[in-house]
Amino acid sequence: MQVTFLGTSSGVPTRARNVSAIALRLPQRAELWLFDCGEGTQHQFLRSDLKSSQISRIFITHVHGDHIFGLMGLLASCGLAGSVDRIDLYGPPGLDEYLRACTRYSQTHFSYPIKVHTVKPGLVFEDEAFTVYCGPLKHRVPAFGYRVVEKDRAGHFDVAKAAALGIPSGPIYGKLKRGDRVTLPDGREINGAELCGSPEIGRKFVYCTDTIYCDEAVELAQDADLLIHEATFAHQDAELAYQRLHSTSTMAAQVALTAQVKQLIMTHFSPRYAPGNTLQLKDLLEEARAIFPQTDMAHDFLAYDVPRRQSAEVATGVAVRV
Length: 322
Hints:
This protein is α/β, with parallel strands linked by helices. It is built from 10 helices and 16 strands.
């Protein structure tokens, strides 16, 4: 599970940073999920080692331009390339209407199916390996954060041990690999978990932007292996953050601390903190680390591999209500 930042500026792009977009490369499958799609995202794909042909799902947090103005261009290019089978889009009310208007006035016709799912708090997607939840954030328009949970997998199956026990190969092995209990033809009951190593604990990735500090963000981020949270403003500009319903660096760190996440990466920075100004991004990083030391700062094309925790590291008693 690898996250690549394709845009880390807020509001407008700069020479060093494009506007919001994050790609999630899924393990053991040639598939990408995209979170937000600011203007120029398709150009960022061309500058990275990612392939837009692998995009299968796009999750939009809200319909402000710096998060969606790249969507039509990306979708149209994917269609012209003829390399996409289907794309599912998830987002707040208004996203479907926006896309319909864009296709109508630009007379764009997609050569592949596109399905828009209007999200509401709770489960928005599930397959055999992942679940995706969303929760409401606090911004000037309806906005949602997303939580991706990789399902736990059974540990390595000990084929030699199964053979030594005289267990015949075939469909039975598949059941035992899943940790199921199986009754053999000779009447013996075998617990598959005893033939497997320690389970592989699923990873949790959470994306929260745009929002001011809120309890809903804390709840969504509970026990995440990686929290990506906006940090538009420095702590001294908290009044601006409250006026515009964005977060400061210290708010992002407080969410991470309260939610007991493993790693925080901040993004969505105001251009006002560019090099040469009185306050710079390194100051925002210092502010956040004073509260939550496991904090880093995103830059365009930063790739981060979400580590898989060991069984002993799994937190107990942590419940997430979504």
